[in-house]
Specification:
The chain is an alpha/beta fold. The chain has 13 helices and five strands. The chain is globular and about 65 Å long.
């Protein structure tokens, strides 16, 4: 089932200017701001209460209470960790079969639901050699930052992966300004240090490209580009397989947008290492 945020983003082309302001207000502090009254959300968005009601109906909810029920369930899901998700009993089905059933639809949904405008904006930022790129993530998602950073380093210069410790993040931020593109990975349960790093990068006028799950990291409001992916998988852990697929699609987009330049860089890498660039 799509989250309220996913539905909003998928249908924003259908929204009136007033409804768009409500959507922006909701996504800026998601999902907490949606748990107040409709009048409160209207005031935050600078619109009338009927505008909020019309938006809720357009999203397919029978009323404000129904949307709030959905948001409360999302809030609970956001904070659920392995302990809360741990299965009460072992499934009789095979591990491989259960992963196939969970992951294949998740990858398909992620790629199909990704906004082409957001995707192309990310490609443009990451392919621009004049913009240094920093990549950062949390305790687990830093593995995605490292993986994607290796891809980017093969096809362009000025790419740096930031270790998740506070000192490394602080040193990296010293050189961040409006020329930088900062790629951040943050998935539930969201990492406070990662969010703070991304917000500080945005405060320094860097363009933040955020990879997160459908429930949206608190960093979402500061991101110039927001790319979400399914984290659904057999419990007790969430899976980042769909995020990996999205990253590899983005890497291909960067390569294709740069024409012959990546090939020459890969050839130089092969000459220096004496082995294939993907080894």
């Amino acid at each position: 089932m799509a989250t309220v945020a996913e539905t909003l983003r998928a249908r924003r082309a259908e929204l009136t200017p007033g409804e768009l302001r409500v959507a922006q207000a909701l996504l800026a502090d998601y999902p907490s701001v949606g748990l107040q009254s409709a009048a409160g959300l209207a005031a935050a968005a600078g619109v009338s209460t009927p505008t909020v009601v019309r938006l809720i109906a357009k999203l397919g909810f029978p009323g404000w209470a129904a949307m709030q029920t959905r948001l409360r369930s999302e809030l609970s899901a956001r904070s659920a960790g392995p302990v809360q998700l741990y299965p009460a009993s072992r499934s009789p089905d095979s591990v491989l079969g259960r992963f196939e059933q969970a992951l294949v639809p998740g990858v398909q949904q992620t790629l199909q639901a990704t906004d082409p405008v957001e995707f192309d904006r990310a490609v443009k930022l990451l392919a621009d050699d004049s913009r240094p790129v920093l990549l950062a993530g949390g305790r687990v998602s830093s593995a995605l930052a490292s993986y994607f950073g290796r891809y980017l380093q093969l096809v362009r210069a000025a790419v740096r992966t930031v270790d998740p410790d506070p000192s490394s993040r602080a040193l990296a931020l010293l050189d961040v300004d409006q020329r930088a593109t900062v790629v951040v990975f943050d998935y539930r349960r969201y990492d406070a240090g990662t969010v703070a790093f991304g917000r500080e990068a945005a405060r320094r006028d860097a363009d933040v490209v955020l990879f997160t799950d459908p429930y949206l990291s608190p960093l979402s409001a500061s991101a110039a580009v927001l790319l979400t992916s399914s984290v659904a998988g057999p419990p007790p852990f969430v899976t980042l397989t769909s995020a990996m697929a999205l990253l590899e699609a983005l890497a291909l987009g960067v390569v294709e947008s740069r024409g012959p330049l990546p090939r020459r860089r890969l050839q130089a890498f092969d000459r220096l290492t004496g082995k294939t660039s993907t080894g």
